Predict the structure.
Amino acid sequence: MGDIERLVHLLAKLPGLGPRSARRAALHLIKRRESLLEPLAAALGDAAASVRTCATCGNLDTTDPCAVCRDARRDGGVICVVEDVADLWALERAGAFRGHYHVLGGVLSALDGVGPEDLNIPALVARAREDGVREVILATNATVDGQTTAHYIADRLADCGVVVSGLAHGVPVGGELDYLDDGTLSTALKDRHPVS
Amino acid sequence: MGDIERLVHLLAKLPGLGPRSARRAALHLIKRRESLLEPLAAALGDAAASVRTCATCGNLDTTDPCAVCRDARRDGGVICVVEDVADLWALERAGAFRGHYHVLGGVLSALDGVGPEDLNIPALVARAREDGVREVILATNATVDGQTTAHYIADRLADCGVVVSGLAHGVPVGGELDYLDDGTLSTALKDRHPVS
């Protein structure tokens, strides 16, 4: 396989790029050798050399413990449980949470053969038992597998002496009712609150 | 900027990837360090080091002249003129052409300030004058700028003693009439042919 074909072949493995867009991306890169191709090659090399998994929470960062776990201004008494590093990043972008995280690395799934022993759950139970931990927020996705996993974890944390909470469900901010599914609408109605 | 942010920033510059999909791609790469991240870094480095522009036709390849120009089994008497290397690759994938190519590197565009001197046209005229060249096929896109460029080149080649031809227009193979524009349908009707 030639250098160009190999580049196209590897780019096509990225999520969001098919064979055709991988060819476009390869051509785009080759035409911008100094401004894009070489910097991207260097950035990939740097990431390969420096990025590691945080032994505490499972986040990906260039340090272990990660920047979130090291930040003394954050509240280590609240642990937010997410399925994936991408979810942790999304919550960090929102900037609404100032506690610590715990990345499960997936969800329980009978179909895909993912059991509790395949997820980062024992470490979570151990963290929940540590001194000073007051609350565990279950922020798995609002899918069947995500909610099943949340229920399982809630059971496992029952005797750890921490408050276990979940994210609110309802109408997304900026969302239009006409485009929402029945489940979301029913939940939003059921959990309605008085308007002051 | 951290290593991960820099990687996301560069990936977001690829066509077809926005900020969100660039983050997904970066995470996908970091999680597959040995199977994808490191090979991709190496492939980009190899491409940066080896890919060059063919001085004859403008194709991108690891050799100059490129594999197409070097192939003795191909007919050097027919030159197919395309706008971009991507078009050359598309024709090669179709496998329907066994002659040589000439990449213009763009189209004439008054709006974008692209004049004849910005394209690879003088080299094309010189090639058309060479011994043994019988035909130049104008395979620029069927857009206004592409067709304007084709007309301009046809004028420039008028006294070179070669046949100048263009691609057929009509209904794409597998295309449905209902989804085609009026221009294509008019052309397909005008250029109808007897069915044996």
User: Anything to note?
Assistant: Chain B touches chain A through 44 residues (CB under 8 Å).
